[in-house]
Amino acid sequence: MRIAEDVASRVARSLSALLKKPLALLDGGLEVRAELADEERLAVGDLLELLRGGASDERVRELEARVTQLQRENLDLLMKNRVLAEVSARDALTGLYNRSYVTEKIESEMNRSLRHGSPVTLLMLDIDHFKRINDSFGHAAGDSVLRSFGQVLRDSCRVYDVPGRYGGEEFCIILPETRVGNTTAVAERIRQRLADSRFDVGTDQVAITASMGIAGMDSVAEEGIVTSSALIERADRALYSAKHRGRNRIEIWPSETPSH
To answer: To the nearest whole number, what is the mean pLDDT of the chain?
Structure first.
């Protein structure tokens, strides 16, 4: 019986971890402090059979094998869920993070900034005259340019930066732990790389440029409480200013937009 109890104790710990529900052995009995689903009740029922001494050696091995299989299935499900979450966070065309994900990420980075007083910066980018590419070469060519643009962003980011496609030909990069002034070097590197590149569109090549707007929060004490939507709006306004000041340039919020 002692051997059975040792096995039961080991199985109970495994089941408790697997089910994420408290199971405890008490004087050869089993205490369950949570409501169980049907499959969970079957596994616990087998464990109770073992405790009552009604399980043969073969049954014990079968129970341990079953728990091991449940653990493998649980791990497999966990990995599949992680893959699914990653896929659902990606833009299908460019492979960058999609708008939904980057919006949530901006919110979380803003909250972290508010908690720890750390800086955070948002860079918004928009491809200049993108409509001309679609009109001249077709939408397939436009998609090819968007993919290539996304690759440039990915290659230009640090491992902890978050590049995303915000919508259409507008992109963004979240830069945690980065002051606004330091972001200009990142933006200029991307701007110059784009200006020097030629992008394949079928049998032709095109040159593209991008306008960029930067906004961020260097100090909570100086800035006060800034919402994620306000940070996005500031970066967008800076981007809008870059468009109106001639394109292929970088503007930092606050910036004055020229009157028409």
So the answer is: 80
Domains of the chain: 2-88 (no CATH), 99-252 (3.30.70.270)
| Model pTM score | 0.68
SS (H, E, C) the chain: CHHHHHHHHHHHHHHHHHHCCCEEEECCEEEECCCCCHHHHHHHHHHHHHHCCCCCHHHHHHHHHHHHHHHHHHHHHHHHHHHHHHHHCECCCCCCECHHHHHHHHHHHHHHHHHHCCCEEEEEEEECCHHHHHHHHCHHHHHHHHHHHHHHHHHHCCCCCEEEEEECCEEEEEEECCCHHHHHHHHHHHHHHHHHCCEEECCEEECCCEEEEEEEECCHHHHCCCCHHHHHHHHHHHHHHHHHCCCCCEEECCCCCCCC
Q: Among residues 40, 109, 169, 170, which one is catalytic?
A: 169
pLDDT digits (tens, 9 = 90+) for 37-52: 555 555 556 655 555 5
- Active site (annotated) includes residue 169: yes
